[in-house]
Amino acid sequence: MGRVENYLLGMDCGTTNIKAVIMAEDGTVAAEAARPSRFLNPGPDMQEQDAKEWWANTVEIFRQITEQAGEDVVKRIRGISISSHTVTLLPVDVQGRPLRNAITYQDGRSANELHYIVDKIGFERFVQIVGGQPSVAFMPNKILWFKKNEPELFCKTKAFLQASSFINYKLTGNMTTDIDQASRTQCLDISTMEWSKEIGDVIGVNLDDYLPKPRLVDEIIGFVTDEAAKETGLIAGIPVVAGCSDAMAAMYATGMSRLGEAGESSGTTSLVFVGSDIKSAPDLPVVTKPCAISGMPWVYDAPIQTSGAALKWFIETMAAEERQYAKEHDKNIYTYLNELALESKPGAGGVFFFPYLLGERAPLWNEYARGMFIGMGMEMKRADLVRSVFEGTAYALRHVIETVKESGAKAKVLRICGGGAKSRTWSQIKASMLKMPVYLLDEKSGDVPVGDVFIVGNKVGVFPNLTKAVEQIVKVNEIIQPVDEWVQAYDKLYPYYVEMYQHLDGDLRRLKNMLDCMGK
């Protein structure tokens, strides 16, 4: 084998940890490192992170991986791409210094500001502008809260940055934002792909003055400065691209490279992706985001709130009997649940599980939905209960895929990475539920920094043919085919899953409102 000439650096600033990898053009990992991220909770419904800690962790990680890889490799790093959790509000001054902790997407303190904005603009008009359902997770309400409650800091603000944009600034000295995260802020007018004057007028802020002009995900926005090189151990002059959200990088990491493929990054939550050659209408439950993959200009991007988290919740709260059995027989609890679920027939004896333990994002987009078991009877077995949890999360996945297909996209195969790819039973249920083969990817595939590597590698010419690079680097461990008997059962039962929730939606909303009033 000849000498490897090209290396790439990908990093993801996630909600719980920051992780980076230096990867060779043949897919070999030269070095990798991670550091945990801390959440700060200054008050009720408040979630923050310290941007200075992001950079300190980044410096430590870069120093570790550059030392681990060695000077010869570092000299051949051809590009850097960084992704991050989103949407975040980080105000910085004219010198790029954080003025306060970053307010993250989980922060709910600006609910009143959100209601004010939507009331002023009107729900339908707001959805038309931003191309999605209003949520406290996004930026217009956070900006308004910051302006109202911390006016002195607002007056010092030069720009609002995302986590990856702040790290990019520290590397290059340029304040930028990428079009992927910009399209998720709910400050962007998706019809013009420019910052919305209408939303800015309502909150009393000229968004063009505070939000950098969106750049393409793979656009080179600058080069590692001498100062940054000294801090990090990198070489000055390495190109840095705009980067993207961790969701978009995860999509690249699944190996999606052509229309007709769907991807699921299956962990605590699930991120579901389906490529499209046309832009969606703005008022759909799942909408398209811009995508830099050649031949795939748009991608439907749908987060499911609790998938792996639902299984973990079941184990911790309802599976004491199974935990004890697994312990006594020296079995992994997840392995045992996979075996037990197969003792139940498809449909779990008529038991439906609705995995809305934290509300639901796509395609329901509400916080009042709740987890439910429906259909229990005296004849129910433990195996039925276990299988219903696997099936419930698969019904939720089908709900997303069916919604996307109704919007005009096509999905003929599902590529799964992350922890969910380790469960063959779950994957067999998903294959049968969706009526398509499921490709189970190896553990390194789906790692978000690998997606960052694909983005920058394609841009700088290390991976001129992304499809070919994906085929060489992203390994498929197994292809799971649908089971005909299961397909027939799920086709009959899926409509009940959708309709039963629809019948309960109004009651769940009223229940949530009543419980909120009781708690005050």
TrEMBL record:
GO terms for molecular function: kinase activity; phosphotransferase activity, alcohol group as acceptor. InterPro entries: ATPase_NBD, Carb_kinase_FGGY, Carb_kinase_FGGY_CS, FGGY_C, FGGY_Carb_Kinase, FGGY_N. Residues 265-443 form the Carbohydrate kinase FGGY C-terminal domain. GO terms for biological process: carbohydrate metabolic process. Coiled coil: none annotated. Gene3D superfamilies: 3.30.420.40. Residues 7-251 form the Carbohydrate kinase FGGY N-terminal domain. Keywords: Kinase, Transferase. Belongs to the FGGY kinase family. PANTHER family: SUGAR KINASE. This is Xylulokinase.
